[in-house]
Amino acid sequence: MGTLAGIEFFTATVEAGSFASAARKLGVTASAVSRRVAQLERELGVPLLSRTTRSLSLTEDGRAFHERCVRILGELREAHDAMARASRKPSGLLRVEVPVALGHAVITPKVPRFLERYPEIRLELTMRDQFVDPVAEGIDVLVRIGPPGESSLIARRLGASQIVPCGAPTYLARRGTPKSPSDLAEHDCIGYLRDGRPDPWRFEAADGTTMAVDIKGPYHANDAAAGYLAALEGRGLIALLDFVVKDAIARGDLVPVLEDFPMLTRPIHALYPKNRHLLPKVRVFLDFIVELFQSAEHVGGPRISRSSERREALRR
Asked: Please, what is the end-to-end C-alpha distance for the chain in angstroms?
């Protein structure tokens, strides 16, 4: 502990430029600062400062040691502040952004429960599907579907959601049920419109690779809700994340197809800046949504069966 005190006196001296200036900043005498720095030098066995009657300068060893000391003291201050924040009651403005479909289907129905639990938190919830920089926009927690990617943000996995191809009973009665992904060429499919064309439907083979199947149909949209409504009306097959279609499947309004040919499973993460991770309001919200996603077997609807024979046929 004496070494830690010596480090504090040493870094204060370097920053202030003299023992006297450091002493005024620390509220002690100049001789006390000088003695502590000299004691630190004896413990290390190397001189840290070159002293003259008029100035102080860092030695080569002193410069290298000072760089490490600054980092160590910064981390100690951050740890101290984080613990102090963590002990406070969760309160204040909390800004959260989530994807539109996930927000409507999973998160917003449970928001009242969160606000009841933490009445001193003011929640601002934004729903959009574009990826944004949470640091630049002042967002505390960003929930996103898909791999978190490379960034300085901390990622906390919440769960996963599988894409489910399905259609209305009226459509299937009129056009038949596809037996394999190749049958989609003969069907009207409602696609998610991206960059002027519908996304291919991607199926997962037994060896973990994927097969992309181009789709066609008279109607595509860049909004999952619009496609969902068209599918309910029997306008074509659609592939949506399980949490979007699970209630319609449970009611019989939509019927899963191609159950032996699983489509991709997408991970779901909460992303947040490093300096937010121990704020009480952020910590309790993260715990809340983790609990929310873990409260069910999985995020959304029925599990897709995985026939090894059919999966091998897809791989070939």
From this structure: 67
